[in-house]
Design brief:
16% of the residues lie in helices and 25% in strands. With 56 residues, the protein is α+β, with helices and mostly antiparallel strands. The chain has a two-stranded antiparallel sheet. A two-stranded antiparallel ribbon has the order 3-4. Strand 3 (37-40) and strand 4 form a beta hairpin. The longest helix is centred in the first third of the chain and has 5 residues, at 14-18.
Length: 56
């Protein structure tokens, strides 16, 4: 795992995301940061799949 290129994102509706507890993922004593958007295969994905960052 490349620590500098690994992010955590949770996808869901706005209502679903407000119910979520903010737990971090720890792998091999490294905490993986939670991101509000990620770039995957050239497409920017945000947590609600609105594609706002990709379109702008």
């Amino acid at each position: 795992m490349n620590d500098t290129k690994t992010d955590d994102i949770v996808l869901g509706s706005t209502q679903q995301l407000t119910k979520l507890n903010s737990h971090s993922i720890v792998v091999d004593s490294e905490t993986i940061p939670r991101a509000s958007s990620i770039k995957y295969l050239g497409v920017w994905l945000d947590s609600c799949l609105k594609f706002e960052k990709h379109i702008c």
